[in-house]
Amino acid sequence: MYVRRVELADFRSYERVAVDLDPGVSVLVGQNGMGKTNLVEALGYVATLDSHRVATDAPLVRAGAASAVIRCAVVHEGRELLVEMEIVPGKANRARLNRSPARRAREVLGALRMVLFAPEDLELVRGDPAERRRYLDDLLVARQPRYAGVRADYDRVVKQRNALLRTAYLTRKVGGTRGTDLSTLAVWDRHLAHHGAELLAGRLELVSALGPHLTKAYDAVAAGRSAAAIAYASVLGDGLPPDRPALEQALLAALEQRRPAEIERGVTLAGPHRDELTLALGDLPAKGYASHGESWSFALALRLAAYDLLRSDGIEPVLVLDDVFAELDTGRRDRLAALVSDAAQLLVTCAVPEDVPARLHGARYDVTNGSVTRAA
Hints:
The protein is an alpha/beta fold. It has 8 helices and 15 strands.
């Protein structure tokens, strides 16, 4: 799989830009703030319907414009697919596949499989559990796009259930004489357990498959200085099998057990949205114990493990390294270059070409404010 062409209209700093790309290595060179990351962020949006930099769509639209458009021609197994996304802040985004409207934007998921490593990924190690849950769920969708629907259904149920609990909590807090009707809570419990079991089983299967790739990737990047491992920590306990009916019953029991505390606090306390992906280096947790270099290596290993897992599934994703090499020492740079040099398509961004190892010097694109030019 590779991106043959990407066109942007009113996306971030770009009013209009079109870039033709080839398989193999492409290096985007430009000073900070010139738009290198904006370009790969647009590709990432097509792949995940999300930005790795911001939580909302509004910053993706160029100042003064009403919407942004991304067009992406993807070649896979000799066939080309045109994906078009229109981003309209505050409204549902619109998508087209080969110029035919999609009923829902998430129907484009799977058209472009991409793994992106960026400076923000340091939060996978040092940040909140939500960052690691997002990593798992994005990879889950990349492997099996149907999980986008599971994820959306689960999020909707949690939102509705939280709203009900929150209303009851606020009523009591202001001294309301009539309690909020919680009779429908049992209905939401069943929905949450059903969708939550599906999501949880998918995560458990994913972590089991991902673990060996993570250990191998960290060993390669860090030159065997320590052993990296991941594990899934659920509010239901450890050692859970990915048995969907059993997980559904366990979730129902957990919700019933936590019901008094949920009513007291006004929030849902059991489900995959409360779970954690734990990261370890040797016998110690990576968070709080890993050095800056070890944290970088771990974050990079998480992305490389995702890339290797997708390849082992028969999926050849596009690999993007956004401003990565400037943060690595010479040894890590060379080892990373050796690991990724055979990618079907590798996009590298950098401020100066010297940051990129010689074996990755492919096609070069100079990025200035609002334009991208292929070097001769």
